[in-house]
Amino acid sequence: TGLQRPAGDPIVVDDPGRLTFRVDRRAYTDDDLAAQEMTRIFDRCWLYVGHESEVPGPGCYVARDVGGRPVVMARGSDGVIRVFANSCTHRGALICSQPAGQARSFRCPYHDWTFSNQGELVGVPIPDGYGPGFRKADFGLARHRSDSYRGFVFVTFDPQQPRTLTEYLAGATEYLDLIDDQSEAGMEVIRGAQLHGARANWKLMMENSVDIYHFRALHKRYVGYMESLGSVPPRRRGGFGRALGLGHAANELPPAAARPLAHWTPMFGAEFRPRIEATAARFAERFGAERAERITRTNRALLIFPNLMIIDAIAITIRKIDPAGAGRMAITSVALAPKDEDPDIRELRKSHYLTFLGPAGFATPDDIEIVESCQRGCLNRTVRYSDLSRGMNKEVPETTDELPAREFWRQWDRLMQGDGGRFEVPHRAAGTPAGIPAGTPGAEAR
Ligand code: FES
Ligand code: FE
């Protein structure tokens, strides 16, 4: 069955002829649409679960909600990472109520059924109550299809999902490479997550997380502070937005003074300079000057459809944004860092992460407040559409354009309308502006 709306009454109004792009605000407020998103998007896509470094050794596990479902990502005693339904096969209780830990087995608290960390049912108390038709082998934990790319673990609840994870990630793999290549020793999630939320639709936060248009306007206090210290505003730094296919998108721009280098960077401080230079030289040798420059010096915000953001700026934030009905969302934030980072730089990174991107930082409270404001504003149904057409008139959109949001919405629309989501390779821009690596797809795929 199609969406319950008349033909000619689309949610996403994409008009390339007039270079306009509008989204009907019911997409943020309508409960029926929110329910359909769960089945048409979250039950079908590949969804981010966590990072392999969060389960470093045999028996390590994390329990979290993904796409509205409680799951456990566990590394078995055999070293294999699996994702299970966090639901006892007896009568449904969560078999794991701790957010993280290490265990040889999971014991359900209700009747003590016990499952190995590889998912088999290994123990049932008082077994004499079952007949010959009851076989433990039939009651192992339900295992979800999962896979990882460069350490990022995803799951899909759709047995018919036709794409491998790598196919699904499309052009986003290039950016995951740039993020993971920041350390020869590998990247790791810093222990501890920040769990927060907002009284707003989840898509408002996805748009916000990749929107640089708002930066100077909304974060005036931070911008004023940084500029007083010599930082250059994003627009004057250049850079570009890119559609990466299948709803994924990125912004890429040269760093502010706040972050001269990605992973070994102090916000300020000449005492770090020799180490920065040494690392930069090592990377140039390994990757060549151009790629090393891009890995180490560029800021990027990566949107992976539907609900993952990786903001690689003054620290690397992994932000998972989950719907909780039309008007609420849950946000999980963790920081990613090189495993071999020097302790003093790690401290600096954590401070950047907490003081800028954290829920009590310089920027995120502004963003939470404004998406809640949008949600309230959208409840006045007289104004029907939001506009996301900025930059459609350009061959290569700037970072302050709304290309990433349009890429997100086009995929949202395809999936909500029941089309598996055509994948068109974003075509290459005619002119390649300075600072953009050759082969960069700049313009929009429709
Ligand atoms: Fe888990 Fe009964 S519900 S043992
Ligand atoms: Fe912001």
From TrEMBL:
Query: What Pfam families does this protein map onto?
Result: Rieske, Ring_hydroxyl_A
Asked whether the UniProt record includes Iron among its keywords, one would answer yes
**Organism name:** Streptomyces aidingensis
- What this protein is called in its record is Benzoate/toluate 1,2-dioxygenase alpha subunit/p-cumate 2,3-dioxygenase alpha subunit
User: Which CDD domains is this protein grouped with?
Assistant: RHO_alpha_C_AntDO-like (cd08879), Rieske_RO_Alpha_N (cd03469)
Which Gene Ontology terms cover its molecular function?
2 iron, 2 sulfur cluster binding; dioxygenase activity; iron ion binding; monooxygenase activity; oxidoreductase activity, acting on paired donors, with incorporation or reduction of molecular oxygen
The similarity annotation says: Belongs to the bacterial ring-hydroxylating dioxygenase alpha subunit family.
The record's listing under PROSITE patterns reads:
RIESKE, RING_HYDROXYL_ALPHA
From start to end residue, where is composition biased (Low complexity)?
429-446
Keywords associated with the record: 2Fe-2S, Dioxygenase, Iron, Iron-sulfur, Metal-binding, NAD, Oxidoreductase
- Which positions fall inside the Rieske domain? 46-155
Q: Where is this region: Disordered?
A: 426-446
Q: What domain of life?
A: Bacteria
* Keyword Iron-sulfur recorded: yes
Quote the SUPFAM superfamilies the UniProt record gives: Bet v1-like (SSF55961), ISP domain (SSF50022)
